[in-house]
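[Q] Does anyone have a clean structure-token version of this?
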Amino acid sequence: MKKIGIGYENYKRIIDDGCYYIDKTMLISDIIERGGMVTLFTRPRRFGKTLALSMFATFFEKEYDYNGKLVDNSRYFDGMNIMKADDKILSMMGRYPVIKLSLKSAKQPDYFNAFKKLRDEIIEEYRRHSYLWETDILSQDERDVLHKLSLAAEDKELDNKEKISVEIGRYTTALKTLSVGLKKYHNENVIILLDEYDVPLENAYYEGFYKEMVGFIRSLFESCLKTNDALEFAVVTGCLRISKESIFTGLNHLTINSIRDEKFSEGFGFTEEETEIMLKDYGISDRIPEAKDWYNGYLFGQKEIYNPWSVINYVDSIVNNGKKFPEQYWANTSSNLIIKDMVWNADDEMKKELDILINGGTIEKRIHEDITYDDIHESEDNLWNFLFFTGYMKKVSERKVEDDIYLTMRIPNREIRSIYKHQISGWFNNQVKDTDRSVLHKAVLDGDTDTIENYVSDLLAKSISTFDSEESFYHGYFLSLLYGVPNYMPQSNREEGDVRPDIILYPNRPKDSAIIFEVKVRKKFNEMQAGLDEAYDQIRTKKYEEGVLDDGYLGVKSYGICFCKKSCIVGKLPK
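[A] Here you go.
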């Protein structure tokens, strides 16, 4: 079996290292035949955008090795679908100078350091084409300009705002300058590939220098994409179309392709057929239903798409690491700050909508693609649009009302649902920390079941989700409320008697009784008393109290607690 290339984003490395590769090379033909002069692809994180640009560069670039010898990259496409394309497409292989730039390194705490990272990326691209200032094809002045831009000013030279401003200004037009030099040398227009263009904007929004970063990205793009006669075509990737800030001002030749479009719908992510073939290739076809439940659910155009990052990690974890259960993989790579913001700042209406979504329901929202980080929280529409286009929601259906499009949406799959639940659990924990629990703690010690019921139910009423009535959630939530009971230490699922009680409060002083809570959950209110009776029966039949007394404690008190949605009832174990 071929190696599974976890984390590989370089097309050549995938082929050179013999990694398993799902053939997406027909995207090359598609971009030539159906792309624009500038094509913006917006897709969620980790759906293959960086790898696609690396593949484009490998195919199109007229590349030289360190000795100045022309590199033949055709071997990287042996046996690939693109080799079945017509002569026009194949004649473009290895023909063009290419500029490729990733903007994701600009996740920095301030504007100056973010700019320096972008500048360093540009300089690295200049040095990759260092042959330009060693040739007589360009004039001496042209070579001097290019060479100077390949040399960054040191920090000690940038000791005031005026000098920093000059340095920033030098690089706003640097990609265009490089394009002109490359065209003159190669006598061919230049292909520009820009990856993760919105990462600097998202980071700047959260770090507080959004307007400055918008200004730099706008100037950079205007120069190399709008007023560049040396441009053959460009491909830009990101999660969102950021247009209100005029990042793409005046780009009349811009083609935008988002997850709502039919074109290129199979170019990013794995189709159902591709996913099933991969699982069969690794001998785990019996896990196809599980993979579908966890990692499918995206709809690009009208095509069902699986999360590719999650699928390859899932297959690798089973085949190479022997893991038995699916896990959350995308959650660990994606920026979830917006989910956290949404959950922690949710008003009553949004809490209701999150309840509906986490419990498998749908909501309908007006959709639009002109999104700005600066305005995310100005309207609920902006927030839901952000979640949809970044992969946290899936379209179920759509309708048009006059000039507006409304989407019915739901959470795509179990993996994404777990992200919401994780953030909501954090919200609960934060809420608990900020709550005065002394009333609850006194009620627990006094055996005041009515006060326990009212306190916990009131707190739950202010919360967001019932998590499909999962006992594990209520167990953890109630346990977190019990921390801080004077002279007691709560323990969860510690072995006592025949099995494990849900929660035990162990006293620090021997004269005090241990306290047992057995937690039950019911989906209907009229079943809560039966849940309480089941808790009592379990405490008796599993001999929880005997186990505690056998440990040497002088006394024990037992309670049942049954949750249903955002309510609970509490009772003492009848003697």
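[Q] Thanks! Anything notable?
[A] The longest helix spans residues 414-433.
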